[in-house]
TrEMBL record:
Keywords: Isomerase. PANTHER family: HYDROXYPYRUVATE ISOMERASE (PTHR12110), INOSOSE DEHYDRATASE (PTHR12110:SF41). InterPro entries: IolE/XylAMocC-like, TAT_signal, Xyl_isomerase-like_sf, Xyl_isomerase-like_TIM-brl. This is Sugar phosphate isomerase/epimerase.
Amino acid sequence: MKFRHAPEVAPVEGSDLGHKLGLSRRQLLAATTGMAGAAAVAATAIKPGKAFAADGTPLIRDSKRGIILYTVRDAISRNPLTSDLPSGFKEVFKALSDIGYERIEFAGYTQNANSEGGANLGTVAGAKLLRKWLDDNGLRAEGNHGFIPGSWPLTQADRDNFKIQLEIANVLGMDHMGTGNDPTSSNYKADWDVAAAKWNTLGEIARSSGYVKLYTHNHDAAYNFLLDSGPLDALGRPTRSSGIRKLEYFLQITDPKFVNLEMDIYWAHVAKYKFTSYTAADGSVQSDVFDPLALVQAQEGRYPLFHAKDGKINTGTANGYDMVPFGTGDIDYTTFFRGLTSGHHYPMYEQDTAPGNATTAPNQSLEFAELSYDNMAALRA
């Protein structure tokens, strides 16, 4: 695996020079080591077959390109005593920084027990160690898929645990904290009302703890149609829909000051493939094709983070897509990011299937991370 940052290059202390020149950390390192030309060539190394322009303004600035560590979870959990490949948070941070990533989204704080710092860094002391490693590699934490209380009303134990997680987020310097799950798995309006009340409360607690925005990460089911009308079933629950999708309703009834979202663009396209009609209150079947970009455009400020996960069309599967490295699939990311008016989003590369066979492809997730970074960098306006 070939990284573009020479391992002997020392970190740039502070960022005053970079700020004065208007350069990102990666640009400054390239300029000071004579690698700018090579980096520019590498940034266009997109896999053939993806129709991205090679000129123009980057659709995702280098300072915005990120990765969720779930993608490289095999490297995080790798035993450093039995492998020379990057293992544990400290070494993986270095590998991701060498590739060019500047933003990190956590998927929990555990690693191999033999890695420096031990197995569990989900404490304030552990967060201080993680923060040092992030800073050493010019990385910034942008979020975490962590603890969101399941109870409602909140128990005192849940409140206390939630506040500890917020303290960890503040130590790490995160602007956002979230979860990998939908607000509720239910199809019923009443359950989404409860979820909204809980998230409004948690979001207010998060903002009062510091500048931490709470976000929910969504899968395809959240874009199915809400059951909110029509005849009631034996339990008194509605059986038909007014045509509003569950997450659209959630956006309507939550406070934008306190509740934000992280659209997984892959799962949103799966929803576009799967959920194309609903049964209206009068029993008629109505067609409605989901437009992920239109949902974001309606309240763009509520989407600080995205999961930039690509998919290859495969209608032989229930989801209609197979996960592949970013830039090698069929999801039109050029159109998606061109459709945004704000540059204040952080697209986090994710691929659930990135880890390879421990014997035949032990470093696959990091290799895919490099390929995906190059393809993110190649997106042009």
